[in-house]
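Hey forum,

I'm writing up a methods section and want to include a predicted complex as supplementary material. The small molecule is magnesium ion. I've pasted the protein sequence and the SMILES. Can someone with a working setup run it? I'll credit the forum in the acknowledgements.
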Amino acid sequence: MRTSGSVLVGRDGPLAALDAALAAAGRGQPATVLIGGEAGVGKSRLVSEFAQRSLVAGARVLTGECLELGAGGLPFAPFIGVLRGLVRDLGPDGVTGMLPAGAAGEFARLLPEFGQPARPGDPGEARARLFEQMLILLEQLSDRGPVVLVIEDAHWADQSTRDLLLFLIRSQRALEGLLIVVTYRSDELHRTHALRPLLAELGRIGWVTRIELGTLTRPETAELAARIVGREPGEDVLAAVYGRTEGNPLFIEALLAGGELSIGLPDSLRDLLVASVRRLPEETQAVLRVASAGRERSGHALLAAVTGLDDAALAQALRPAVAANVLVTDADGYAFRHSLIREAVHDELLPGELTQLHGRFAEAIDADRSLVPPGRAPVELAHHWHEGHELSRALVSAWQAAADSGKALAYAEQLVMLSRVLELWDKVPDAARSIGTDHVAVLEAAVRAAEMAGEFDRGVTLATAALGELDAAAEPARAGLLLKARGMLGLQLRRPRYTDDLEEAVRLVPAVPPSPERAQVLEVWAHDSHHHPGYDSAEFRARAQQAVAAAREAGDAATEAAALVTLATAEVPGGSVQRARSLFAGSPRGPGRRSRC
Ligand SMILES: Nc1ncnc2c1ncn2[C@@H]1O[C@H](COP(=O)(O)OP(=O)(O)O)[C@@H](O)[C@H]1O
Ligand SMILES: [Mg+2]
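Reply by user p_vandermeer:
Happy to help. Structure tokens for the complex are below, copy them as they are.
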């Protein structure tokens, strides 16, 4: 959260509503407040004011910002921010001390400070565990006193963040003393925006309230203008300011940035922001242009490396921008005070300039990965190489970023990165060699990511593409697994003939020698058979037994466990719970981990 440090104008109503929500949370009631409003209207400012008051009242405030990263987003970005803030306050041990043993392994997927990431097991379960642990952490914190969790700019939230947020808000009854505040740009929410369904869903939860933050009124505009220029504005000045900005504080500030009303009002509001930057010295503007090609926040060292200026020269060049409130600075680096200012500067760059700047960011990060926060380098590189039109390097870093997202259980983001790899494949020479994997393997990884991300249609398309490239006679096991995956996706999509794929998979994967692939296709085929209306229970049991046997022969314990669950399902309708128990007792690892009834 960034503030200009000036006095807050107006906003008594929204502040009172937030205070009331915190009080309700303090009484043990669940409470979430959604704050919508156009860019620059003062959402962050309101929330930071409220955060100050909450701190004074003894609450802990956790803040996470969603970043404008476009497609190659950083999964769980705001929650990583929250965890990072907590680690700063309490130390990694202080945070892990609040969690059940081993839980830090899930957080380590998000933040390297937590040590070694948990071993990858069943991906769906690992994700559920990560969500659960975030819940436990918040529960523990709110047991110690009131907590305000602020998620800023949810219109930029990645899919994983949206999922986790919905999960937490839905579970809020278990989180006494926690208030969740979410801000978003309501003017960005076009008809198909991904936040819309989430907002609709949240609207149905009784404890979620919504504030639409409007622009300042005319008298409030006069007050803000007076505070900026240091005296009451005349009627004509006020009319110009109010007419031009319609009471949006960001634009009021930009219009009056020079201490008075700029002469010759620019045409568009964007030009207004550009004009406030143009008043700065040329060397300051040059650094701002560079910074605009970076993320919202750039570290001191990163910006120094990209501009080629040393720390002192950089600080000197940027001082006027900080004084003019275009940039804000903190211990870590610089950030544009508002992303609209960054956008305005960025949009002034010529295409050639932009390509070159992104290339410089990528070179710098590639040469020294510590210039970006731990774990961020692949995502950053994927972004900058892509924007810098260095396609071969973009492909390699997208492949790495995909692997990282997979480890972080962020399948939607993994799918975005894999899609980029596929999109670049034909545009670069020797793609397979550069990532050490063939095209079908990328498609296979994308099918898995699509399945986990709930993008079933896309998964079917990817699986079909992969099957089209594979020689099933030469690689029957591989083709079998793809058919199995496509069949499962077809089931999710309620496609009429999805069982064809499952049967074809069983036909294709040879029974000898025994293999995990054989066991897996049998297990799914067996499990699926009881979905069919009027299924034959003897046949169902026989298939399940076949799957258990194949898994045992292949030494595939996870599939064996899943097949045993299926077999138990086959037994129970006949009444033999006893028999089901004895089946589990016979399994090497006890009851199966995956149940998909
Ligand atoms: N009520 C207000 N009083 C004074 N300044 C404000 C007020 N609301 C916003 N501002 C200033 O306007 C600018 C934009 O506000 P910000 O909170 O960043 O907008 P948003 O988060 O809605 O995009 C900031 O510099 C902020 O300090
Ligand atoms: Mg904001």
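Some notes you might quote in the supplement: Residues 589-597 have pLDDT under 50 and may be disordered. Residues 43-44, 153 surround magnesium ion (ligand 2) (CB under 6 Å).
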